[in-house]
Amino acid sequence: MPFLNDQNRMWQEKAREVAEKVVRPLARKYDLLQEYPWEIKDALAEAGFFGVWIPKEYGGAGGTVLDLCLVIEQLSRACGGVGVMYCVNALGSFPILVGGNEEQKAHWLPKIARGEKLIAFCLSEKFAGSDAQSLRLAARKDGTGWVLKGEKKWTTNGGAADLYTVFAVTDPASKSRRISAFLVEKGTPGFTIGKIEDKMGIRCVPVVETVFHDVRVEDAQLLGGQPGFGFHHAMGTLDLARPGVAAQGLGLAQGSLELAMVYGARRQQFGSPINSFQMIQQMLADMATQVEAARQLVYASARSLDTKMPAANKMAAMAKLFATDTAMKVTTDAVQIFGGYGYMRDYPIEKYMRDAKITQIYEGTNQVQRLVVARNLVKETGALTQLLEAYIPREVQEGFNDPATLAAQKAGEGEAAVRGTTS
Questions:
Q1: What is the DSSP letter of 209?
Q2: 137, 124 in Cβ contact below 8 A?
Q3: Residues 51 and 187 grouped into a single domain
Q4: How far apart are CA 311 and CA 314, in angstroms?
């Protein structure tokens, strides 16, 4: 792949090797069982993947967002569920990197980098999904600590994780400093796992409700040591994490394209392999083009975050929405190429379509991503106006006024007539 440096290619090749040797042979097993694949997790830890995004001073590899995306892409190419299982640890630990104090970073990040501690991200609630400001989980100050009461929904990695980054309301009266984040350990009294979701896809990674019944945490567990910065930490985290979700979509699209190519060469109809038919060739050509376009956008968005470009959040949103829409389109077309067999559970392709759907929904629905992109475009319009306004003609209607002006004139004439009769 052009434009990748030696470090990028090293992680890409290493991830592809693990994906083919470990992940793909076990993908169907854990999809059917809907159980956490601990043997795969151990292989990922042994390969050093949990340290990719963590700085070297905290025991990690000091890799980039692009390195992380390359690993996610290769794992997702073999199994979308494993791609999520892996990258949710980045999602859960990004808040520590974004907003944690030195003590919190030094305590937790080395353990996460070694794969000793798994982590989850607790933001969404039953009535707070895209609208993250409307959280209800409450954190009440109590002496030297806080007491958490409420519940979270859609906690990916819940139950398997050892540490949870939990966002709660600490100042209900505030608009800008309403939310804070806490680091809550598994086994803390009052902290339990509620409903375990029975999912359409990504079945090897648990998604659960997490319940906080008067859970006491100390001040040292308040992310960053200061209340009121939780929303900022959450948004910064999601900007960093969205290229990873895009990479999941990219991997699923690439994996399903490859399966469709192989099946298209093998399946015979009317005495010829179906990949000799123009209709199938057109589908494959469109799929390959869409995948490659998504790949370039995913890599570009990762680089924009690595280089701290001003428009990085717009690029992350664009990559997330385009790559995951591509995943849904390409996996669906791959099922179509497999025909009736594509609908059957004993063929591998239907799993790709099931795994792809969630990528359009979580970590910000694609409708929300379009809002993010559009708002960035509106902000950029001011500078463009100065440059381009003179080149866009303005139309003027000669000889008569527009309807609004005529209505105003009529109203004025009527008013004058009334004044004339009463004077």
A1: E
A2: no
A3: no
A4: 5
Residue type at 369?
Q
Q: Which residues are catalytic?
A: 363
Integer Cα distance of 73 and 338 in angstroms: 23
**pTM (global) more than 0.85:** yes
Q: How many domains does the chain have?
A: 3
Cα separation, 338 vs 356, whole angstroms: 17
Host H or E run for residue 383? helix 366-388
Together in a domain, 70 and 130: no
CATH code at position 359: 1.20.140.10
Domain boundary residue among 212, 227, 242?
227
Token pair 């990559």: residue: 319
Name residue, tokens 């000793």.
116
Question: Is residue 369, in this structure, part of any structural domain at all?
Answer: yes
Residue 417, domain member (yes or no) = no
Residue 26 sits at the vertex; the CA angle it makes with 20 and 32, to the nearest 5 degrees, is 145
Residue at token pair 């100042």? 171
Q: Which two tokens stand for residue 157?
A: 């990695």
Residue 254 belongs to what domain range? Answer: 232-381
d(CA 85, CA 95): 18
CA distance 217 to 44: 31
Residue 53 lies in a domain: yes
Local confidence pLDDT in tens for the 423 residues of the chain: 558 999 999 999 999 999 999 999 999 999 999 999 999 999 999 999 999 999 999 999 999 999 999 999 999 999 999 999 999 999 999 999 999 999 999 999 999 999 999 999 999 999 988 887 889 999 999 999 999 999 999 999 999 999 999 999 999 999 889 999 999 999 999 999 999 999 999 999 999 999 999 999 999 999 999 999 999 999 999 999 999 999 999 999 999 999 999 999 999 999 999 999 999 999 999 999 999 999 999 999 999 999 999 899 999 999 999 999 999 999 999 999 999 999 999 999 999 999 999 999 999 999 999 999 999 999 999 999 999 999 999 888 776 666 666 676 677 666 555 555 443
Give the Å distances, CA to CA, from 277 to 48, 256, 281, 284, 417.
45, 19, 6, 11, 79
Place of tokens 């099922």: 335
DSSP code string of 276-335: GSHHHHHHHHHHHHHHHHHHHHHHHHHHHHHTT-TTHHHHHHHHHHHHHHHHHHHHHHHH
Residues 165 and 210 in one domain: yes
Residues 143 and 130 both lie in one domain:
yes
Structure tokens at 85: 């299982």
Co-location of 28 and 58 in the same domain: yes
User: Do the domain assignments include residue 395?
Assistant: no
